[in-house]
Structures are given as C-alpha cells and as structure tokens.
Fold these 2 entries.
Entry 1:
Amino acid sequence: MNLNIARPVFRFAPSPNGRLHLGHALSALENQRRAHAADGRLLLRIEDIDRARCTPELEAQIIDDLAWLGIDFDGPVFRQSAHFADYQAMLLSLIDRGLAYPAFMTRGAVKRHVAEHEEQGKTWPRDPDGAPHYPGDDRSLSLEERWERLESGVRHAWRLDMAAAIEAVGKPLFWLEDTDDGIVETPADPGAWGDIVLSRSDAPSSYHLSVVTDDAAQHVTHVVRGMDLYHATSVHRLLQELLGLPTPVYHHHRLILGADGCKLSKSNQDTALEELRAKGVSPADIRVMCGF
Ligand code: GLU
C-alpha cells in the first residue's frame, strides 16, 4: 500500500499592512473549511513585500486574531520578506528571455500621459481594477539607452512585456475554477492587464511575481481567495506558464460588502476583528456574521 499520497495544500495569505476585518475572517474560514473537507494542510503565508507599510506589530495582531478565531495552521509561518532572492531569480529569468523591461515613467508621468490622451477624446485601455495600462514607450528603447539609464541610477520598475509574454506562451491559457457547479475550465485573459509590474525600486518584487513563486515553492494545490482577485488569476496563469510552475485549482469566494456596497477596507473600524473582539463579539459570532 502506498501511504505516501500527497495531501492537498491550502494557504491563507494576508498582508500585514493593516488589520484583519470580516472579509479576511471569511477567507480564512473558507480555507479552513475546504482544507478540512479535503483532509488537506492549511499554511499561513505573510505577504510582507511592502516593507514600508507592513509592520511586525500588524503581523503579530494578525496571528493573534487568527488563533482567536480558531484557525490552526500547519507548518511554520512563511514570510515573503525572507524570499526576495527567489523572486529575483524569477525576474532574472524573464529579463534573460527579453520578456521584461525597465520602466522609467513615474506614476505621475503615466497619469499625465493618459490624461493628455483622454483629453483628445481617445480612450486609454484600463486593467480589470480600473488602472490605466502602462504606456510602454520604454519598450522601444534601444539596449544601449536602457543600460545608460540604468547605470545612471534612475529609479525604475521592471515590467512584463505582455505582448511578448503572450506570444512566447503561444497558446490560450485556462485555469480550473472550483465552483458550486463543479470544476469549470476558465479562460485566462492576461492581456487585459497590460505590462504588469514585476518589481519596483522600493519593493524588489510584485504581488503577482511573489504569489506564483510561493504557491509553487509551498506546493499549494488549492488557492482559495476573494472574488476581488479573480481577474488577477489570468496574470498568475501566464507567469506560471512562463516560469514552468504548476497551477493550483482556484476558488474565488464571495466578498463581504460594507454598508456602502463596497469591498471592506483595512481602514474600516466597524469590521476590524480587533475592534469586534474588544466589543465582546465571540469567534462563534464571527462565523455567523461570515455566513458559516
Ligand atoms: N495578500 C493578498 C491579500 O491580502 C492575498 C493574496 C492571495 O490570496 O493570492 O489580499
């Protein structure tokens, strides 16, 4: 009998740049429920690449809130800030293949560029989150110009050349979405995002690059996260394909909306777990509030 059958691996991956709210509780509980039903393992990954906004105090609060809520994690806590070298290696492999380029336009310059375009009545493409695509003029810089600017120390980000990346993959991409109606093959549309950021001068990796690197490194088989990240999965599929990484099954769950009908934010006092705990709300109450 083969007892070495790999168990499914789930992960909850909060960013310690704010406090957990009811939306995070729902996500953690949904991961716990699914991991339990599949006899899987549940890992905790702290997504702290944003060194300016993530703090040890917020991380400690998150870990405390999750323990209070009754979520047990398997294995040690995985911190992204300890893995910058891994993300750098992934970035270098994309640069080597001519799929990433240094992008020199500041946020302000992009804003002005887009505004000028739109003032002339022309539309400018926007990504699924509503942010304008990067203009991409830097894509056509000669190698010489690129290195001259890099050597002069100008601040820059590294961006994926989306058109080149899609061409390099050369086939339509899909992911498996675990829905109420079963597993559905879902087409990925990474082009909708334009030239995404892979690393910035102030953060040596981006969310997209780190998340696919770590899901592979941690052997994650099931990604359970909110609908707000549904479209990001298109980018994750593309990066997995480019970097030769495996693809987990995805489930994007419903979001808890605030009284204004918008997604909860970390600044929202009423729904912060810390606040609710202080008011005497119990973990069982939180489960009910999250629809469990
Ligand atoms: N760190 C992300 C967040 O807190 C979640 C990333 C993911 O689940 O892929 O929204």
Entry 2:
Amino acid sequence: MKVVLAYSGGLDTSAILVLLRKKYNAEVITVTVDVGQEEELKGVEERAYLLGASKHYTIDAKKEFVENYVFKAVKANALYEGKYPLGTALARPLIAKKVAEIALKEGADVVAHGCTGKGNDQVRFDLTLKAYLKPDVKIIAPVRELKLTRMDSIKILAENGYEVPKQHKKYSIDENLWSRSIEGGELDDPFVEPPEEAFEWIQPLGKTPNEPLYLTIEFDKGVPTKIDGVKVDPVEMIKILNRSVGMYGFGRVDLIESRVVGLKSREVYEAPAALTLIEAHADLERMVLTPRELRLKRLVDQVWTDLVYQGLWIDPTRVHLEKVIDSMNNYVSGEVRVKVYKGSLNIVGRRSAYSLYRREVIDYNFGWYPSDEEARGFINIHGLYALTALSVRGSK
Ligand code: ARG
C-alpha cells in the first residue's frame, strides 16, 4: 500500500506516519506544503525521514497562496462572523490540492491527513481531495477514525522508540502567512483572557513603541501593491505588515466561532497583515463604490466568506461570486493611510482616481446647492410611502 500523507511535522501527523508504517505496513510519502508556517517548517524533512518516510516533498506554495487565495480574500473583505480572516480556511484547499497532485504523480492508493472529527479542517481536506483525486484513491483520517488524542500520539511515538518533541506545546497552533490560530489550554474557558504567552506575532501593549506607525497602502484593482510608495512583492507585503503592525500591538482576534460541524468554539488569532489590509481595502471601497454597489458587495462578500469557511472552495458558486467581486474591484485603486498605535488601527486618509467624493459639492460654503423647492420635492416623494402607511394604519 502506497500512502501519501499530508505532513505538518507536528505530533499527530508524526504519529500517523509511524502508525501507517508499523500497523499497516504501508509505504509512506510525506508532503509538507509551505504556506508561510515558518516555525513549524524547521526540521520537517529530517523528521519525516527519521520516522520512516520513503520520500518527502516540501512544496513552496507561498506565492500561489497569496496571489490566488489571500488576495481574493482581501477583495472580498473576508472576515468570518465579522472577525476571523480565514487563514486556515484559505490554506486548506491549497494544501489539499498540492497533496493530491503528489498522490497522482506517485500513483498512491491512499491519501492520509491528520484532521480530527470535530473540526472544520476535515471538511476542507476531504472535499478538496475528492475534487482532485481519482475516485479509487481512498482518503483516510486516522485521528478521526481511531479517535486519537494527543496522549495517544505521544504513546505511539514513544512505543516505537521515537523521541517525543520535548517542548510539549501548550496550545494547538495552525500558522500560515495570513493568520496564526491558537486553540486549547486555558483558552478553552471562554471567560479567561488569553495570556501573553499565547501570542507570538503581536507585541504586548506595554512593549509597543510610544510613537504611532503611519503606513500608506496602495491598491490596484483591489490588490495591495505598494507600501509608502514602494512596490512590494505579494508575499513580502504580508510578511512586512505582519511584522510592522504586530510590533505596534494590533491584530489580535478573540471570538466564539460557529464551526461547520454545529459546534461553538473559542478561537484566538493573530492576523496583523490580514486585518490591516481588509480594513484599508474596505475603506477604499466606501469611497469608490456607489451606495447600491456597496450594499450588494457586502452581501456577496459574506456569501463568499461563509462558503470558504465551510470548506466549499470547490463550489462553483465561488467562481460566480468572484466575477461580481472582481467587477467592482476594478475601481478599488488608490491609497489608504493607516495609523497604528498601541494596539489600535485607524484609517486616517484615503484617495483614489475613482473617488466618488466631491468636495466642491459636499462643502456647505460654496458650489452646488439645491433650491428649497428641489429639496422639498425630493423629500416629499422620498417619504411618501411611509407617510401613506402611517395614515392608513393610524399609528406612529
Ligand atoms: N477555527 C479556525 C478554522 O476553522 C482555525 C482552525 C485551526 N486549525 C487547526 N488545525 N488548529 O479555520
């Protein structure tokens, strides 16, 4: 049996690798997809071979992740339940696609992943894998199937003579360029404030600089292209913003999240670049889109976001939605000035060649002014239906 395993290098997928070899006598090929999880990538290949992988692939998908997934999320102002910028949800379909490509190339019989039966990731992995794999390739999720706990994983490694990673991690972390998700430990009590040690990307307020950080972010058709007038490569753009904005203490999220599988969970994230870019992008949209476009956009954005969260990247609806999203983003070009200070972010300026804001019209002191008659006529007709309803119903 030839298995291709989506391998993060963490405890669970390491235990799965050993289990597949020892218990099922399988040949295991490991695939690690680099979506910017810097810490986790260290030593992954060595570990895979040490644990008996017959072959290992590390695939650098950072550029593809940012250009084809993250920037689509920016264009859609994607914040699930108003707060979570979808880091994990965006990366999973790409990881699954890359793993499926290797499975195809290697002629694997089975594809394995490390998702549990309680989370969202199993939905995202299974569905995307199904879309890319031949139907006779089996998808297995040993953690889900055997209900493995972290203790079980430690046991499997120890029993087979492998060293268990010493720095036993307190939290379950999922990291990529777009967000760092922190689950478990005391965070499982939703009334407990996340301790500073849970965070790695964002400085505690006490350590942030005493002067604000000003950034000018330029967008071209909805995509961020420049910082302070300098063109920046897409992957670098995210890294720079994570680092700089994180240093000023902004980018934490703490929310009670509705999972795909009917459960509520307490989720904590760090996402400085994501929250900055979405804030800035949405602000620019308010300047360049007509009121009705803006309202339609917010509805479409939400459908797109829910779909991606729910593991339905493969749903053709997404592509239809993106037509509308892109069509409106044709006008989302311009600059946004952002001020970050002591954990808060404010948009303090914006300008665009497509701006619908007309200073000479809005200013009370000069320029266009409707006549009293024009204004009265407009108001009468505007509220006519409401006044009619009130008089018919006799109530206010
Ligand atoms: N709740 C987030 C999501 O569903 C993050 C999940 C983190 N995944 C993980 N395997 N730790 O997108």
